[in-house]
Write a structure and sequence with these properties.
Elements lengths: L19 H6 L8 H10 L1 H6 L4 H7 L2 H8 L2 H19 L4 H5 L8 E4 L15 H16 L3 E6 L7 E4 L5 E4 L11 E2 L9 E6 L2 E12 L2 E7 L7 H4 L10 H21 L6 E5 L6 H13 L3 H10 L1 E4 L10 E2 L1 H15 L3 H6 L2 E3 L4 E4 H7 L4 E3 L2 H10 L15 E2 L6 H4 L2 H10 L11 H4 L7 H29 L4 H5 L10 E6 L15 H9 L5 E6 L7 H14 L8 E4 L4 H10 L2 E4 L11 H6 L4 E5 L4 H4 L5 E4 L10 H25 L8 H14 L5 H24 L4 H16 L4 E7 L9 E9 L8 E10 L5 E8 L1 E5 L4 E9 L6 E9 L14 E2 L1
Parallel strand pairs: 1-2, 1-9, 2-8, 9-10, 10-14, 14-15, 16-17, 16-19, 17-18, 19-20, 20-21
Antiparallel strand pairs: 3-4, 5-7, 6-7, 7-8, 11-13, 12-13, 22-23, 23-27, 24-25, 24-28, 26-27, 28-29
């Protein structure tokens, strides 16, 4: 290798008339604006495809002759002018959802941290669903006008490119990302030099360069350690997403969390609220605390309370084994000096993330994120339930349903995923607000006015495009493996553009059971070979490089797809990415998802089908558990859950259910046609799905929910705590310490219910005698807890009623009372509990103090 003595950055030379193409290319809005996308494709359709839809690469490679021809083409120039006008209107608009909703209020700055961001296929900085969700979050934040900033890492090799060997076994390639030809640019400091930040690693500093990606109105900043300033092993730290050993992972997360806050400080963009998308970035709060301690002369626990009030944590993992944890040896190696700077002993630092694993302990990033957040949520209603059960040990003495972990169901960025054809159809019949205010149910009511024939024809056209795309993709796959020309030509007969098409594409984790439907090939064979009512399956997805069980699933599907009876009806597409996903969700009739409940946190791929007229067929897990009804799709099973020991039986039962529904409902609905050759009942379900589900499963609604439930309440709390000075916050921290120190002195002396028999409609008076010790009545919330009884005499599905202070007995005992009205017959149980309360607490359960009668 020869090191250069100088480097030169070569940029495209655009004619003046085309100069704004560069501005359009460096804003990711092209990924969801069909007109901008079409403009770049129009420049050179073949180049657009070979660059994987990368406008920056197109501008760098298109010939000067072609550029000269374009500026002389009136049609192209008119198209460019139209796109630029729309772009300017979008970027400069002062009328957004956020500006209207919070008119006249102080505006917070929200920083959204994620390990990966999936924005478009040419920018391979994501592995799957988490990254695509992060990208859609930024896009909706831009559309809604949120004052949000994204923070992540920039990977030299991204995740990995997948190809299969002749045996169907997954192989991995790691091509190098060429930043000079991607819609990303190096951020500069005030002197015009490349902006760098540093974090401390054992015995040295690690430097990272700051890159910027513009996502509509929202900036995304990414850190990259591939710098000459770093030693060789440190340069490769940000090479791969989810690669390397545990030491690599903790260092990546130090760069993301601590380095991410330092880059915002360097840009003078200090956030008011930080949103941690999963626990990877949880170290960020340590850095925020360190800065506040230094600037405001606070101790760790004072700063921690203020910082936590401006933090939000989203959990994505319903499987404990998938959580990010580190051994204490790695904590000692990387944080010994940092602990001292925070004024913490080793034990105090480890307590921030200590998780007991039974026979050993680990440092849990999720545990630390929970402890340092005023607001935590799962990503679907069912996932919220699973998360509360998963983390109930953090809140001893609290009924599991009251564990303070909520849920914000995921969504998708509609304009990214809806097909151009479907969008054009909806433009003709729906309120134009469907493109900008898709959370409004009324804008989707117009789907009823869309002629069945037009909706069916539009969807069928996308199915035809999907089949054509699959055939070309399969030809390339075979060609790369060195297949004969006759084998390659045979791909022209694979799949039927008129057949019921079922898609399955996702990460090949074993709990997602990609091969479950092939448990009975004898039952499958006549279904795919039926000349009158055929069904066909398209599979795609990657297994983690170290997941051999997931790779075995892929090989099994490829083996079946190569069987003579299945070779025309079952295909596996290599190297699943956002482009493949777009074709699939826009062209499949049915989206199949069959994870073992309740291991799917949410899932979003099936949501993308909704807006393209696709229907879902899934186990009742993740988002489908709350979306399903028989008018909009199909369920596999009835939401049953089985122990791990019954996995084989579980798979057998649900495989049988899959076949029964497919044979008895899906196929008849799809193929039963009237004289006009339209499947009217099927089309009715397509319309029901759009009408009922489209307003909800969008990131516009999701980001609004985060804003109204977490971002703004947390910001308003921070303002009250810290302005005009820190005194309210310091008093609150002091109050919390006092309550914690004196809680043991609190006793519930007795509870009296005025009768043990009552009639429906009558009232019960409950009186509690409570010795508060040194605490005051205003320090506590006394609650009546009541509910029906199970066979063991325990209260189930309990409800609460705040009790009111009646009087002070004068002997240190306070009397609290409540009145309960009996609304139904049956045995009812009562209890009383005392919790601390303060205006700055986001939940009564926050300090982990609770006393029961």
């Amino acid at each position: 290798m020869v090191k250069p003595v100088a480097t030169v950055s070569v940029v495209p030379k655009l004619p003046q008339a085309l100069s704004r193409l560069s501005e359009l290319a460096y804003n990711m809005r092209f990924a969801w604006d069909h007109e901008t996308y079409t403009l770049f494709r129009r420049m050179d359709p073949e180049l657009w495809e070979t660059t994987n839809h990368n406008p920056v690469a197109v501008l760098g490679r298109v010939s000067q002759e072609r550029l000269d021809a374009l500026q002389s083409d009136p049609a192209f120039m008119a198209h460019l002018e139209h796109v630029c006008e729309a772009f300017d209107q979008y970027m400069q608009s002062k009328s957004t959802w956020f500006s209207e909703r919070y008119k006249g209020e102080t505006i917070p700055r929200v920083a959204y941290f994620s390990m990966e961001f999936g924005l478009t296929e040419c920018f391979q900085n994501y592995s799957g669903g988490l990254g695509v969700l992060s990208g859609d979050h930024l896009k909706s934040a831009s559309d809604l006008g949120l004052p949000l900033i994204g923070v992540g890492l920039l990977y030299q090799e991204g995740y990995f490119q997948q190809y299969l060997n002749a045996d169907g076994w997954q192989q991995e390639l790691y091509p190098i990302n060429d930043y000079a030809n991607l819609p990303v640019y190096a951020e500069k400091d005030a002197n015009g030099d490349i902006l760098k930040i540093s974090v401390e690693l054992p015995g040295r500093k690690l430097y990272a360069r700051v890159w910027r990606v513009q996502v509509g109105r929202v900036p995304l900043y990414l850190l990259d350690t591939n710098l000459d300033d770093n030693r060789e092993d440190d340069r490769s730290l940000t090479d791969r997403l989810y690669g390397g050993d545990r030491r690599t992972r903790i260092r990546q997360e130090i760069v993301l969390g601590i380095g991410g806050i330092r880059l915002l400080e360097a840009l003078n963009l200090r956030p008011d609220v930080c949103h941690m998308n999963e626990g990877h970035s949880a170290f960020l709060n340590l850095e925020r605390i360190r800065i506040m301690m230094r600037e405001r002369s606070l101790n760790f626990y004072q700063a921690k309370e203020i910082v936590s009030a401006g933090s939000v944590f989203t959990l994505h993992t319903p499987v404990p084994a998938g959580l990010e944890r580190f051994g204490y040896d790695l904590i000692d190696e990387h944080f010994t000096d940092y602990m001292k700077e925070l004024g913490l002993s080793r034990d105090q630092f480890i307590n921030l993330g200590r998780e007991n694993m039974g026979t050993y302990e680990l440092f849990s990033m999720s545990m630390m994120a929970l402890d340092m957040s005023y607001g935590a949520n799962g990503v679907a209603k069912l996932h919220g339930v699973v998360s509360r059960d998963m983390w109930k040990g953090v809140y001893p003495g609290l009924p599991v349903e009251e564990v303070p972990i909520g849920s914000v169901t995921n969504g998708i960025h509609v304009q990214t995923w809806v097909s151009r054809e479907m969008g054009t159809l909806l433009d003709r019949y729906l309120n134009p607000a469907w493109r900008t205010q898709e959370w409004r149910p009324d804008v989707w009511e117009g789907i009823g006015s869309v002629p069945d024939s037009e909706l069916w024809r539009t969807h069928s056209r996308r199915r035809e495009r999907l089949v054509a795309f699959c055939r070309e993709r399969l030809k390339k796959q075979l060609s790369q493996r060195g297949a004969s020309q006759s084998e390659i030509n045979a791909m022209n007969e694979v799949l039927n553009p008129d057949a019921l098409t079922i898609g399955f594409a996702r990460r090949f984790a074993t709990y997602k059971r990609a091969t479950m439907i092939f448990s009975d090939l004898e039952r499958m064979r006549p279904l795919v070979k039926d000349e009158n009512r055929p069904v066909q399956f398209i599979f795609a997805g990657k297994a983690h490089p170290h997941d051999n069980e997931g790779k075995a699933f892929i090989r099994e599907i490829v083996r079946i797809a190569n069987m003579e009876d299945f070779r025309h009806s079952i295909v596996f597409l290599e190297n699943y990415d956002m482009n493949v996903a777009r074709y699939l969700v826009q062209g499949c009739d049915v989206w199949l998802n069959n994870p073992r409940r309740p291991k799917e946190a949410s899932g979003t791929s099936g949501m993308k089908c909704i807006y393209n007229g696709g229907l879902n067929f899934s186990t009742l897990d993740g988002w489908w558990d709350e979306a399903y009804n028989s008018e909009v799709g199909w369920a596999i099973g009835n939401g049953e859950e089985y122990p791990e020991s019954m996995n084989a039986e579980h798979d057998r039962i649900e495989s049988e259910a899959f076949y029964n529904v497919l044979e008895k409902d899906l196929l008849p609905k799809f193929y039963d046609r009237g004289r006009d050759a339209l499947p009217r009942e099927w089309i009715g379900m397509m319309k029901n799905g759009i009408r009922e589900l489209a307003p909800y499963f969008t990131t516009h609604r999701m980001v609004q929910e985060y804003t109204e439930t977490y971002y703004m309440p947390n910001f308003e709390r921070i303002v009250k705590m810290t302005q005009p000075d820190l005194q309210p916050a310091l008093e609150y921290v002091s109050w919390r310490q006092n309550v914690r120190n004196n809680w043991r002195g609190l006793q519930i002396k007795s509870v009296q219910v005025n009768t043990n028999e009552a009639t429906v409609g009558s009232n019960a008076q409950i009186t509690a005698y409570i010795a508060l010790g040194t605490l005051k009545p205003e320090d506590v919330c006394v609650q009546l807890y009541y509910g029906s009884l199970n066979t063991r005499g325990d209260i189930i599905n309990g409800k609460t009623l705040d009790m009111t202070l009646d009087k002070d007995n004068g002997d240190g005992v306070h009397i609290f009372k409540a009145v309960h009205r009996y609304t139904g017959a049956g045995d009812l149980g009562f209890s009383v509990r005392v919790l601390p309360q303060h205006a700055f607490m986001h939940t009564l359960f926050q300090p982990n103090l609770i006393t029961w009668a």
